[in-house]
Design brief:
single chain; mainly alpha; 9 helices; 76% helix; 0% strand; globular
């Protein structure tokens, strides 16, 4: 398989994977581009691997985890700064909220990657362990902790919703 054929066949899949691990479409495109750029540099080696897509997927995941360690990862430009004492518009928060994305955003990068690879990419523990360079038991432990955190987030959200309902009554 030539590099151009691979990009045509799997490029959008890499962008989707980048989006599910990062939650940001622009960052997802950057991750896919970086992974493809690094794969292109050593395409002969990638092409001869047992599973070229597994190789490129690992590049993308490693780049995401590396990106989250950088100080600038959490920085995002804003169009305007709210004046001090401004009251936030809660209707906008509710309209724009997506509870699953918010809950996933609370997880560590590694926990998020494990859940995405397990439930979105439908990979088994051994494959996830290979992608992350850890043991399968670490994958199971990380997934267990991440799911417990998501359950706790869901419980907090439902309690918060109950308090809002009480105020509206």
């Amino acid at each position: 398989m030539e590099f151009e054929e691979y990009v045509s066949a799997r490029g959008q899949e890499l962008v989707r994977l980048g989006f599910t691990v990062s939650g940001d479409y622009q960052r997802a495109e950057d991750l896919a581009q970086i992974a493809l750029m690094q794969a292109f540099r050593s395409w002969r080696k990638v092409r001869n691997a047992d599973d070229p897509h597994h190789y490129v997927r690992r590049i993308l995941v490693n780049e995401f985890l590396s990106m989250t360690r950088r100080r600038s990862y959490g920085e995002a430009p804003t169009a305007e700064i709210d004046p001090p004492g401004a009251v936030p518009d809660h209707a906008t928060d509710i309209a724009n909220s997506d509870d699953l994305w918010r809950a996933l955003a609370t997880l560590s990068a590694r926990e998020r990657v494990v859940l995405v690879l397990r439930y979105y990419e439908d990979l088994d523990d051994q494959t996830i362990a290979d992608v992350l360079g850890i043991k399968p038991s670490s994958v199971r432990a990380t997934a267990s902790r991440a799911l417990a955190s998501l359950r706790e987030s869901k419980l907090r959200l439902s309690k918060k919703a109950d308090r809002v309902d009480e105020r509206l009554s």
